[in-house]
Design a protein that fits this description.
By secondary structure, chain A is of the alpha/beta class. Chain A is 33% helix and 25% strand. Chain A has a single domain, classed as Rossmann fold, CATH 3.40.50.300. Chain B folds into 2 domains: 82 residues, Arc Repressor Mutant, subunit A; 78 residues. A 3-stranded antiparallel sheet of chain B has the order 1-3-2. Classes of the chains: A alpha/beta (240), B mainly alpha (191).
């Protein structure tokens, strides 16, 4: 078990955004959290990643109860064990791709030489080693998101949390990003939780958790068979 | 449908039946063989309709091979087919629609269960299609990729419709269909 929540509740003023979420995420799982805007999905992601504290209930990351940590300890957990990917990449525009990727390590006290070495390794993994000296503004949206994925991976996190990672990209580039995340998961045995409202993105994962009005409405594991029953390649009949 | 696929290939070059059935398989990347016999029957009908014509090829191995080509009428029919816009048939009354409507008016299961099961099924299908798509090579398997894409967008549309139904479930449950008047039996009374 990598993440577990117990009766997680979050209020913003009088608004109850999460109403008692119980969640279990296993190591190596690729999970989508879906829901309409206002369903509480981003709030849930923030609580899982220690970016915010719950009003009630608990979050365990591996064996660590996040609720008992001080702000400094929580910040260390975020820095060392959680990789974040956002819709708007959040890259630093005035430094090159390699420095962006190395930044979390440098902030955490790793030597610059070592940090750059490790940054180059993950840039190679996401297929952007040739662009490592380019600045974010010189890269396409898809490339910038791959840099952001490399930055999330460089700390070798226990879990990657992604908030609408393909939201700013066209469908094809979004598909490529999901393929890269899937590939990363296989290569590194990481766990990934993606928040999305896009069915096509959610369908690329192993399990979809749907929130409605702050509660879990449904959890569906997705079973992979090679041949979808809706697709029959035939020129005589309909495809569906 | 196969009729126009045959005409489309014959526009590209003249060919005999076996060649056409092979070419159909290659162009459409279908996982099922297009049977040569099926193509031969189609060619016979097209020939009777005056859309194709043939002459015998002088091949050593198969001296009686008919090589087909389009006629003027065939070309016109093909052109009409290409430019005729197709639209899907939206029939009210597919099986899911019936399940939803009857579940709203009284059923051994709730409409929420009906919607949820449908939603799970659609996501399961979508999962398989997008995974298959991710493994499809756009260079060599473009027709399959295009076909999968049309399936994806239709499933997405079904999901969106389902989402609308789910959001409006409270309203939908208010639905009260009219009841039929009992039909009077026997002959109408004479005044």
């Amino acid at each position: 078990m990598i993440i577990r929540t117990e009766n997680l509740v979050k209020h913003f003023g009088k608004t109850e955004v999460l109403k008692g979420i119980n969640l279990h995420v296993e190591v190596g799982e690729f999970i989508a959290v879906m829901g309409q805007s206002g369903s509480g999905k981003s709030t849930l992601l923030h609580l899982l990643g220690g970016l915010d504290r719950p009003t009630g209930g608990k979050v365990w990351l591996e064996d660590q109860d996040l609720s008992v940590l001080t702000d400094d300890q929580l910040a260390a957990v975020r820095r060392q064990r959680i990789g974040y990917i956002f819709q708007i990449y959040n890259l630093i525009p005035v430094i090159d791709a390699r420095d962006n990727v190395a930044m979390p390590l440098i902030v955490d006290g790793v030597s610059r030489k070592e940090a750059l070495n490790r940054a180059e390794q993950v840039l190679r993994m996401v297929g952007l080693i040739d662009q490592s000296r380019m600045f974010p503004g010189e890269l396409s949206g898809g490339e910038q998101q791959r840099i952001a994925i490399a930055r999330a991976l460089v700390i070798e996190p226990s879990i990657i949390l992604a908030d609408e990672p393909t939201g700013a990209l066209d469908t094809r580039t979004g598909d490529e990003i999901m393929t890269l995340l899937r590939h990363t998961l296989r290569q590194t045995q990481r766990t990934i939780v993606v928040v999305t409202h896009d069915p096509r993105i959610a369908a690329r994962t192993d399990r979809i958790i749907t929130l409605r009005d702050g509660s879990v409405e449904d959890e569906m594991p997705l079973e992979h068979r090679m041949s979808p029953s809706t697709v029959s390649v035939s020129i005589q009949g309909e495809t569906r | 449908m196969i009729k126009f696929a045959v005409l489309a290939l014959l526009y590209q070059h003249e060919a005999h039946g076996y060649e056409l059935s092979r070419q159909l398989g290659l162009t459409l990347k279908t996982d099922r063989d297009i049977k040569a016999g099926h193509v031969a029957v189609t060619l016979g009908r097209l020939e009777q309709a005056g859309l194709v014509e043939y002459q015998f090829a002088e091949a050593e191995a198969a001296p009686d091979r008919k090589v087909y080509r389009l006629t003027e009428r065939g070309l016109q029919a093909l052109r009409d087919w290409y430019l005729q816009a197709e639209i899907r048939d939206y029939r009210m009354g597919d099986s899911f629609y019936l399940k939803l409507v009857f579940s709203l008016t009284g059923a051994p299961v709730t409409p929420e269960e009906v919607l949820l099961n449908r939603r799970r099924r659609l996501y399961q299908e979508l999962h398989q299609v997008v995974e298959m798509q991710a493994q499809t090579n756009p260079q060599t398997e473009l027709p399959l990729l295009l076909l999968l894409e049309t399936v994806v967008v239709h499933i997405e549309a079904d999901i969106r419709w389902l989402e609308t139904c789910t959001q409006r479930i409270a309203d939908l449950k208010q639905y009260q269909p009219g009841t039929p008047f009992p039909q009077p039996r026997g002959r109408p009374k004479q005044n």
